[in-house]
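Two proteins, back to back. First:
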Amino acid sequence: MAWKENLSQEEYDADIETATNTAKEGLFTQEQLDTEIGKTKDLFKEYISKEDFEKAKGEYETTIKDLEQYKPKDKSETEIELEKIKAENKIYKAKEILQNESLPSQLMDIDFEKLHSENEEDRKQVVESLKELFADEKFNNSFKPTGHKKNDGEMTKEQFENMSYKERMNLFKTNPNLFNTLNN
């Protein structure tokens, strides 16, 4: 609506009425507004009522209370300490089993779960640890002669009888005459 100067009262009243009707109608007609309000009321009916909401809330809270019995309880310091002692005892027993079977107790220090890792470096690390461990064990458990005595070719029958099978075989290879003499 454009600005007009020197309007009569009738023109002024007509312009006000037109402006009022336009404002009332706005962007939608009354019929369009009624349709949209009806749709909104229909959508609102799909929402849960306050009574139903309170009922569902009560059931939910009851379910939570029932499930809390299965929630793990916090452990006391004594229980935590007892678990640590049990874990240490398991490690001790496992090391004892390894030693009883003549296996190196250092096997306990290797993280075997890394063998199943997707990371190739982890797998290689475990294999290298095993190689080093068993190489050391081979060396430590290998035959190491003791009691090195000068053998002037003299050996008593008693010394011969106290020799191990390996020592006798070694004597047979190195000095077959002496072996035959003492073996008879």
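And the second protein:
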Amino acid sequence: MAERTFKPAKNSETVITELMIPSYTNFGGKIHGGVLLSMMDKVAYACAMKHTGYYCVTASIDEVNFIAPVEIGQLVSMLASVNYTGNTSVVVGIRVQSEDVRTNIITHTNTSYFTMVAMDNNKTVPVPGLILETQTELRRYFEAMQRKVLKKYYRDEFARIKTPDDIAEYKNLMESENCRIKF
């Protein structure tokens, strides 16, 4: 068995910056969320590939919350770093920020976490571990561990509610919701 390798997070930090142009807008005149998601996927791929040395595919995305709108003419930067390493996957943390180049105001618009799986010849491959060199890197790694635990909890909980012992459980839980049950 090959000895496991480790790499510092700073070696794979990646930034992609792009000017937001009119063709990127939605019907409300703001930059379309899908444009930002596409950019986030690209920076996650680049960051993951720099760490693993392999082609990487997106396995999952944890929460994409649009905190602030992005306007035409702003520069949008995607700041990515590997926050966690599993056996064949890495979690890439992405901070998205827009910059109004006229006023130099920088606004945090999104944070998200992409799980990327390393592949070679259509098979998953082991990834290098992560060397944590700062308190921030340690905190990010620990937070990723906690998100992993919560994801498992949610998967188990959703499996449980998909097969309730009694449909009355659904009805009781939905009494205060904005719906009517007609059966």
